[in-house]
Amino acid sequence: ANVLALSLNVPLTDLDGYLEGRILACGHTRRPVGADAEKTEIRHVLLIDDSISSGGSMREALRKLRAVYPDLKISCCAVYGLGGGTYQGEIVFEEVPNPRMFQWNLMHHPLLDQCCVDIDGVLCIDPTEHENDDGARYLRFLEEAAALHMPTLQVGYLVTSRLEKYRPQTEAWLARHGIVYRELHMLDLPSKEERQRLNAHASFKADVYAHLSDALLFIESERDQAIEIARLSGKPALSLGTQEVMTPGSISAVTLTASARTLRTRLRYARRNAVLPAKKLARRLLGDEVYERLLTAIAN
What we know:
The chain has 300 residues and is α/β, with parallel strands linked by helices. The protein is 39% helix and 17% strand. It has a six-stranded mixed beta sheet. The protein is elongated.
């Protein structure tokens, strides 16, 4: 509604404000058409909602408006609707069937109970390299990490590559921030070094996700890990940072592009540092089959 009001240069208000005779104020750089009009002089309004499903919210809004302004012309609009005649709104931009989640309601949606959610980079900020020492500084981070995306409903599964030995600190932080969840899955390895040696972040998350029969989506902070989680689990994963949903059907092309980019970087590194001849390094890292596929991708 705000974007449309700016584009059309017309006044904007919320439903309750309009029922009370209020229109939102604007800065001195913009004077919308009709801003000086009396509220009773407004004859036509656009009632807009982000999404519509049953139509109950829209019908209730219409009832309230007509009770106060019986002669008002009202046009209804929803950005996303179900289609199929569930609600005959005047304007629906795009039909999106249920079940559905949107960027703005991801952490406030009932389907969150059927999601796996990462912790660092999703619920709280990531630790810095300085903080991530697997020692005193990391313990302080676990206690004081700033909250990021806070869910308002129960999360089905928290799945993190934090080490199991930090469960007490993690559970205390979650309780302190009022985060409700069914299960907390943590990586059972002795140290940060062992986790890095095994490169177990994405594989651990994917394994947990794959074995949870009711889990519909993995919400991950890092794009590369989301790609790997989707590839290994055969189920969709959301890269929260880039707002991309990685699905098994599209993952091969995405992975190929990412791997081609990684290969270029590693080849440049090898040439600069003479660690190994570039071709040998690439084949050793990727294997013959993937190496040949990536060479084809780079050539194209």
